[in-house]
Amino acid sequence: MKTKLVFVVNSLQGGGAERVVSTLCSCLCKGNFDITIICLNKAEQAYKVAEEVKMIHLVNRRDTDNIFFRIWYALLTLFGLIFALKREKPKCAVSFMTTANLWTGFVCRLVAVPYFVSERITPDYTIHQFNNFLKWFSFKIYRKSRAIVVPARGIEECFKKYKAFESLKNFKTIHNPVSRFRVNDAPSVYPRRFVLGVGRLDKQKGFDLLIEAYHILKPDNVDLLISGEGPDREQLQAQIDSYGFQDRIKLIGFKNNIHDYYKQADMFVLSSRNEGYPNALVEAMSFGCAVIAADCEFGPSEIIDNERNGLLVKVNNVFAIARAMSKLLNDPILKFRISQNALMINQTNSLDAISAKWENLILSHV
Questions:
Q1: Where are the domains of the chain?
Q2: Residue 26 pLDDT > 90, yes or no?
Q3: How far apart are CA 132 and CA 303, in angstroms?
Q4: What is the structure's pLDDT at 5?
Q5: Same fold, 3-177+350-363 and 193-348
């Protein structure tokens, strides 16, 4: 008989954590687990999950500053999650991202269900920003979890900058799996050579730095494509226009066939100011794409061995990015070696290997 599990996330609308949840659940349900995903918010689903996975959406939430609506949404979330857990009767719950972690931990303690929490980004932008009460509340929730799962060791170290978290011994590092793509012999996705950036168009991803580095380098025969959507699209387009590079730097939006771009790209650049564990970097490497990554917190330094399977550069440094791009463009032997070694990520971060770590962790605690 399969073990009943519930995964809790804000939504599957898009993002690295959401991709991990959908991929991981679709794999685990093929083995020893009967899985339900509970999305706290109703939203368009960006990632497909296996048919065997049951989906529950709790609240059709709207962004608002109205205090009465916020209280109403909180009550709907609280009672919706209580009823869902009582109805599903899981052996344990697994939540991803801070908001879902706090809701899940609180409700699981009310209904006596064991739970795991998973943080995917630096707590400097989440828990460490909370007031003293919420920090204390987060500590209590995380302390009672069977494990605090993080994708990079640096996230655990960052947690422990807050004194209360120093005492916690229940951290567990499990890297993100390589996403599985349905690969076809697709025609060329772009008529010229190109450098690729992938991610949400916001300050965290540092695409303004990548655009400036490209402007400094001014390569004659290589364009820059950036795939993703986000709040900084207009700002980034204005930066591109100011350089007069409208025909050379293109914001191509979200691509369902991003794997075809990884396969064709001359190189992939991760210019992020911070990360939790960069899925796009792992995905690019899995296709043998030569990669450059800012040595930001957290993840790149745990993935890349500099000049063996990628190039690490200083964070927030446009000149370092430009130099690294020039190095790969002008040294085909180095580029080939990096590309070949990058393929090893398919073994170290395979979905089977990562899902087995999750399975062993869960079964050892329930």
A1: 3-177+350-363, 193-348
A2: yes
A3: 34
A4: 96
A5: yes
Structure tokens given for 94 = 């697994």
Q: Measure the CA–CA gap between 121 and 278, rounded to whole angstroms.
A: 10
pLDDT in tens, 113-133: 999 999 988 888 888 889 989
Neighbours of 361 (CB within 10 A): 17
Q: Which amino acid, residue 153?
A: R
Which segments of 109-180 are extended strands (E)?
Answer: 115-118, 148-150, 171-173
For β-strands 3-9 and 92-96, DSSP reports them as parallel
Here the tokens at position 239 are 């930066």
CATH class of 3-177+350-363: alpha beta
Tens-digit pLDDT profile for residues 91-101: 999 999 999 99
Phi-psi region of 189 (alpha: psi -120 to 50; beta: other; left: phi over 0): alpha
Specify the DSSP class assigned to residue 188.
P
| Secondary structure class of 176 (helix, strand, coil) | coil
In the predicted model, is pLDDT for residue 24 greater than 70? yes
Q: Is the dihedral of CA 283, 31, 151, 115 positive or negative?
A: positive
Strands 249-251 and 222-227: parallel
In CATH, which superfamily holds the domain spanning 193-348?
A: Glycogen Phosphorylase B; (3.40.50.2000)
Contact assessment for residue 365 and residue 149, using Cβ atoms and an 8 Å cutoff: no
pLDDT, tens only, 342-353: 999 999 999 999
Fill in the DSSP letter of residue 163: G
Q: Which residues pair with 38 in a beta bridge?
A: 8, 56
Count of CA atoms in the C-beta half-sphere (13 A) of 29: 19
Cα–Cα distance measured from residue 171 to residue 148, given in angstroms and rounded to the nearest whole number: 5
* Entry pTM: 0.85
E strands in the chain? 3-9, 33-41, 54-59, 92-96, 115-118, 148-150, 171-173, 193-198, 222-227, 249-251, 267-270, 291-294, 311-313
Using DSSP bridges, classify how beta strands 249-251 and 267-270 pair: parallel, antiparallel or unpaired.
Answer: unpaired
**Mean model confidence pLDDT for the chain:** 93
